[in-house]
Design the sequence.
């Protein structure tokens, strides 16, 4: 027997020893006298005393000493929100340009962050950033055109592609939020769960390849996204007056969500997996196929890898757990972490295994201090063996041994490729994911004219899909004229570089990232030329304005993490295939002094690498940071080569001297400037004849 109690429709057993805080309409629950102490299902293992849980435990007998479990402010806001509604629903109706603190936390679950322009002085000019939810990075033709329109009508005229295969739309005013949200929903898009304490966008390789393993990975990502989508209707209540605009879910998703044979669910709750408290913090999942590490698989809470038989038929999945990037400066108890091997599951069990992992985090992740609430800290504290044991009790089975995998590779999926169904796809590099100006106009024209669907990549790039072969030449020409060049005409440093948006809108930013990285990359290219590194040699460079790690700088060969105004912490030691965690090399390096660090590092990489193919990340790890620090401190500049005329470029002395004078103004030599001019000319003349 169960009894429904209160407006929140929370269901609890008929037990006089259990009491629950309820909601009286949409009033804050602190006005109620009923005490909060609900547990909707048993935990399949002992020892609950020191853990803050998703819901409170049953009331202890009156003879026992009562102790209050410490919870963060956000946990209380979630509890009192009537499943992420109150007070956001009321705040949206006010004339103020912003919403209050509680509503600011809740609107994240709806896919939005409140921001203000930090470049402006005086009164804060509030706006909202909206982030979409696009499993696998899939974007329909209709949704792309809608987002393009919304950016112009209600945003700042640009679209931002993110490192989790979604759009970000900046600059939306509060009064326009409902119109924008409604437009996205009616175009079969969503922002539900793109932010907040729940599962975020599920990554998968973006390439539209008609291959069994890729198709299976993408379908699995979509099913996991559906499994972990909130069910209580708060999103549709808020933005489309309760109208549910959804496609039918696969039956295996519905079955897995409703299954409670191992005590994972809140029976009869509007949120069977999340309950009233959702998760302790954000939760990230990625799915991929062997070798393809376009998704940074080890940085996710759960990494899912398709395992196929010798005939290419998918049989099951390897699971990694416990990855995560965020940390806090000067707090060594916070750290980035790589996922580690959990085990293997047959393909029919993947949704149940993922659910069991999520529930383990829901029940045991810390809810008292949000700095330590990600699942990586739970696994770091428990160890993988204990974590596996607890997950297995919610899963109802033992995990099989992790299957052997080949080496990972970073795959950009840029350039022209066969899809496998007669069509082509074209991956385009977009610096820092910012679609603006002529690029934005041209992409819109091409996508609209040819009725193309698109994919967003985890490296902030875009893929045009389902292109007929006859369209290749006109599309290539139009793209080149808008500056969207094929990858061989893009500086290799830019191809793998990423930066978060940072200033001026991100409230967490300490220094520049997106606005600063173009100049940083140019300066690094100049250092390459100064120390004699070839143009086609590259380093994975990522820049973030704060330590939260949105652009995954802790996986870079060279990571710059904002640690003060115009100042960066430098991280070294990541690898090209994104399998090694970088480490802190230097702190508080001013942006104008970066060359003092870059020059010796890149010079000695060229001079002392063991083989021509030794990457910068491998070199820094082999040399050791102590030795590298010594080289930086003693650096006095590279040995100067004897001046000479390069007769391959300069036919006469007068031309050389004229170019040399111009080059000096840019702190370059004549050869460097001439090469740069030639490269720019070739790129501007590209007309689509080559791939």
Sequence:
């Amino acid at each position: 027997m169960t009894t429904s109690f209160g407006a929140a429709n929370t269901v609890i057993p008929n037990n006089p020893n259990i009491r629950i805080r309820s909601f009286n309409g949409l009033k804050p629950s602190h006005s109620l006298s009923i005490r909060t102490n609900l547990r909707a299902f048993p935990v399949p293992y002992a020892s609950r005393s020191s853990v803050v849980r998703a819901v409170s435990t049953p009331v202890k007998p009156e003879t026992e000493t009562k102790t209050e479990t410490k919870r963060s402010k956000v946990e209380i806001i979630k509890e009192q929100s009537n499943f992420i509604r109150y007070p956001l629903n009321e705040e949206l109706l006010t004339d103020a340009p912003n919403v209050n603190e509680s509503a600011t936390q809740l609107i994240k679950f709806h896919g939005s962050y409140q921001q203000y322009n930090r470049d402006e002085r005086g009164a804060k000019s509030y706006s909202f950033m909206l982030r979409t939810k696009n499993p696998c990075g899939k974007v329909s033709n209709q949704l792309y055109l809608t987002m393009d329109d919304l950016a112009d009508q209600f945003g700042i005229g640009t679209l931002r592609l993110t490192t989790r295969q979604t759009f970000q739309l900046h600059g939306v005013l509060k009064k326009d939020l409902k119109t924008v949200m409604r437009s996205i929903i009616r175009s079969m898009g969503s922002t539900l769960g793109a932010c907040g304490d729940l599962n975020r966008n599920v990554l998968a390789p973006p390439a539209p390849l008609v291959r069994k393993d890729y198709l299976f990975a993408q379908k699995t990502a979509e099913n996991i996204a559906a499994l972990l989508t909130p069910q209580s209707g708060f999103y549709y209540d808020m933005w489309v007056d309760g109208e549910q605009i959804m496609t039918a879910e696969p039956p295996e998703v519905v079955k897995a969500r409703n299954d409670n044979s191992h005590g994972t669910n809140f029976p009869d709750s509007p949120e069977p997996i999340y309950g009233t408290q959702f998760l302790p913090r954000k939760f990230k999942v990625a799915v991929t196929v062997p070798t393809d590490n376009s998704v940074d698989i080890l940085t996710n809470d759960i990494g899912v890898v398709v395992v196929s038989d010798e005939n290419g038929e998918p049989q099951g999945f390897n699971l990694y757990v416990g990855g995560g990037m965020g940390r806090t400066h000067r707090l060594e108890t916070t750290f980035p972490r790589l996922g580690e091997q959990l085990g293997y599951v047959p393909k029919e069990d993947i949704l149940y295994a993922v659910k069991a992992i999520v529930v383990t985090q829901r029940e045991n992740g810390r809810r008292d201090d949000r700095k330590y609430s990600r699942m990586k800290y739970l696994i770091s504290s428990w160890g993988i063996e204990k974590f596996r044991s607890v997950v297995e009790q919610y899963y109802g089975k033992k995990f099989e041994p992790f299957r052997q995998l080949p080496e990972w590779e970073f795959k950009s999926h840029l350039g022209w490729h066969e899809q496998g169904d007669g069509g082509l796809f074209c991956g385009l590099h977009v610096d820092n994911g910012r679609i603006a100006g002529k690029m934005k106009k041209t992409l819109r024209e091409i996508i609209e004219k040819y009725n193309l669907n698109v994919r967003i990549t985890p490296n902030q790039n875009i893929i045009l899909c389902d292109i007929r072969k006859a369209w290749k030449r006109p599309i290539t020409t139009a793209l080149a004229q808008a500056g969207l060049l094929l990858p061989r005409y893009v500086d290799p440093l830019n191809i793998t570089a990423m930066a978060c948006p940072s200033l001026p809108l991100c409230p967490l930013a300490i220094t520049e990232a997106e606005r600063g990285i173009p100049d940083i990359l140019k300066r690094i290219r100049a250092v390459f030329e100064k120390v004699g590194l070839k143009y086609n040699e590259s380093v994975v460079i990522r820049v973030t304005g704060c330590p939260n790690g949105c652009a995954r700088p802790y996986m870079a060969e060279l990571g710059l993490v904002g640690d003060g105004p115009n100042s960066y912490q430098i991280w070294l030691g990541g690898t090209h295939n994104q399998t090694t965690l970088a480490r802190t090399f230097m702190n508080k390096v001013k942006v104008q002094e970066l060359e003092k660090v870059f020059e010796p590092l890149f010079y000695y990489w060229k001079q002392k690498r063991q083989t021509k193919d030794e990457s910068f990340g491998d070199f820094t790890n082999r040399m050791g940071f102590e030795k590298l620090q010594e080289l930086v401190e003693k650096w006095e500049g590279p040995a100067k080569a004897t001046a000479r005329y390069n007769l391959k470029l300069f036919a006469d002395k007068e031309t050389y001297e004229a170019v040399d004078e111009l080059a000096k103004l840019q702190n370059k030599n004549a050869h460097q400037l001439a090469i740069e001019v030639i490269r720019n000319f070739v790129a501007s003349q590209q007309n689509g004849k080559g791939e």
Q: What stands out?
A: The two ends are 68 Å apart (CA to CA).
